[in-house]
Every structure is written in C-alpha cells, then in structure tokens.
Design a protein that fits this description.
Its main location: membrane. Helix content is 86%, strand content 0%. Helix 7 crosses helix 8. The longest helix is centred in the middle third of the chain and has 50 residues. It is flat.
Amino acid sequence: MDALMQWLQPFSNTLDDPKALQLIFASMLGLAIFALLIAVTFVVMGFSDPLRQRLRKLETSSAGAVTGEAGASQWLGPMGERLVPTEEKSKSRIARELQRAGKRSPGAVNVFFGVRLLLTVVPPILLLVLLVPFVRLDPVFSMVMVAGSAITGYLLPRFWLERTIKRRTRLLRRGLPDALDLLVVCSEAGLGLGAAIQRVARDLEISHPELAEELHLFGLQTRAGMDNKSALRDLEERTGVDDIRGLVTTLLQSMRFGTSIAMTLRLFAVELRDKRTQEAEEKAAKVSTKMLFPLIFCVFPSFFVVALGPPLLGAMAALAGR
C-alpha cells in the first residue's frame, strides 16, 4: 500500500498544479486533432486510389447492398482498412463473427473497424471542442470524461456485434423446429435434400426470415456447383448454432452410411423436440428459486408492515401509557 501511494504521489502533485493540468489538456486536444487528421488522411487516400474505388464498386455490386449501406461502406471502409489486423487468424475470426451477425459483404470487416475508429475519435473531439471550453468543469473530471468517451466508443462496436450474434442465434434456434417439420414433409414427399431445403426456405421467408436466408444461401451454393456436404459444412460454420451443427452432423452421417434422409430428419426432429421440452422444464424449475429475491426484498417488507404495523403501534401506545 505504501509503495502504491509513493507511486501515485507524482500524479497527485501534477493534478494540484494548474499549469500542469493546462498542459495535459492541451496535449490531449492535440492528440485528438492529430487522430482526426490521420482518419481524414485515410479517407482521402481511400477515395483517391482508383484501384480501391474499382474494388469497392465490385464488392458493392456483388453484395447487392442497399444505397445507404453502400454509401456508408464507401467512406467508412477506407477509415478502417488500415486498422484491420494483419494476422490472418484474427481477421478470419472477425469476418466469421460478422457473418454470424448477418453481415456478409466483402468489406464488412473494413466497415466494422471504420465505425470503431469513428466512435473512438469523434466523441472525444466533440467534447473537447464544444463542451469543455464553454462549461466550467473540473479539469480532472474533463479528462476522465474524454477518456471514458473514447473507451466507450472503442468498445461499443464489439458490444453491438456480440448482441447481434446472440439475437440472430436465438432467432435461428427458434425457427429450426418449424424448418425440420417442413423438411420431414418434403423429404417424405419425394424431394431431394437440396430441393427440400429450397422449398422450406421459400415457405419460411415471412415467419423466420433469418433462417430462410441461410437456407436460401445453401440453395444458391448447391446450384453454383458446390456439393451438399461442403454447403452443409459452410452452413454450420456460417451460423454457429449448436442445433444446426447437430443437424449438419446427422445429415452428413446419413449421407456417409446411405440411410434414409427422411427417417434421419424425423428422428432428429423428435430429439430436438425432446431437448426443447427439457429446456422448458429446466427453466420452469428455476422460476421458484428466482422468485425468492423479489419476494424477500419487495413483497415481504410491505407484508410485514401491513400485518405487524398495527399491533406494534398498539403495543407502543400501551407501553407509553404505563
């Protein structure tokens, strides 16, 4: 503890000096302006390079993005292009997470890092330029607020990505039982696996659009020449859902050993239904334990006041009368 206080002593002395605080504030403002100039330089370099302009046009046309998203990617992509990790493992991991979040455009990784750079640089600059000079705040609080806005802007895209992946995973798991029932009906009617998946994708476009999009992409891959096994592996990797991974494994084993696809789908649908029932029973069993906390901290105090309040007041009055 004494060593920590001795290590923090120079910082406390610095914060007590107004000139040192002004110097620190000026340094932070200079660093923020320098970071903004670097971001503007990245944007200008990205716009001025004809090769990158041509590649972005091809990526936009192949991805079929809407006008607003295409415009955003054109000026956010160059900002994040310099920040993309050079390691192929890290880059592929982020690209896979963006795919699981539903962002499959070729420039999604660049746009992600461009948004992160924008949210990291712009809010601190706005605070330093618009709020701090006109509002009388403590210098230490101003520096903490600027640093906190930069850290929040850096972490916010990651938080959004994780939330989007969880939401999309939940929607895919919710639509899988209906898709399995339709697949069983189509397979027993005589359709092959590819034709059955395409038919189910058309039927689920309104009720479960996320799962229908994944199945439709599977159909496009098979029609483009990819075999069913590779397309199923890509579906498993692209979604990252445990139930879909189990379905893909079951179908691959059925193809390998030559068993009936319809019977395999029916058995897996029964197993998935039992698994969902067990999950529902487990959640129902946890309700009684979870209800203890609101009962103890919210219901019981008011019940005790209503039930024991009048007798306590009468006892206090009787003791005061004696």
